[in-house]
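Annex B. Sample input.
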Amino acid sequence: MLQNKKILMVTSSYDKTCSYIIKKFSQLTFFRLDLDKFSDYHITFSVDGFKIEDANHYIDSGSCVSIYLRKPSMEKLDDIFETHYHSYIHKETYAFVEGIIESFNGIVLTKPSVMRRANNKVFQASLAAKVGFHLPEFAITNNVDLLKHFTENAGIIKPIAIGEITSGSSKEFVQTNLIDPTFEANNFEYSPVYLQHFIEKEYEVRITVIDGNFFPVKINSENNIDWRKPNNKVSYEVYSIPSTIRNNCLNFMDLCNMKFGCFDFVVKDSTWYFLEMNANGQWAWLEFETEFNISGAIIRYLTKDIAQKEQ
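Annex B, continued. Sample output.
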């Protein structure tokens, strides 16, 4: 029955994770919609649902078994339209594709509305406290007095939502850093930031959860601030997690109506401190490092409806 069904992947042409899944699960049929090549497709939504075609293949509402929303980026429009039209076209394009995903009645990992809500750092902090996670002292604010407080008490600063700044072909990445006490806080009130008490961690744990399946990995890092920093030495190992952490993660996901989430913790003196949850986090490198079959859990979920009908 799966032979007549297709999994729609919404992503970008440079997404190596989707390429890896398509190659690994070659017995399945995937249709890849790379939004950075949007003009290469013919896409229509009507009373009959959606239909997407490229030069050689098509997928429609009837043949689509599930949708996997990955890492879409928009098409470059330089030398095609004047710059002031780019934002309009990108917003129209994404609204169109988002509407197709939101209106699909089958399995979606994960709908944009769910992802957007779950990834909001303010909502996350509120929800984390509600389900029983420990949180470091924090403030999401534009109040310079609080910046001074966290500066004087070994605080860190990180973005709330956007981790990069793009200008033309160049990108500037905004990462987690210790607050520099010599930094002039001019114009601080114009943009909110996430301030947090720095914990001298023993190690970090990344827990990837897919439809109730847990893939916890202990991360040992030379960089004690942010293991994602370039040129950092990192090691990974499969790890066992407390039942309270497992239950809190499941409650968090239930309240968000999520089936996929990547939870980040730091551990100090046996206390697990919640840092954040990414509703569309990267996971492939952990599969390579640990031999966890994360991709298999994703595919099992995306083909769940068909598997149940065949039983």
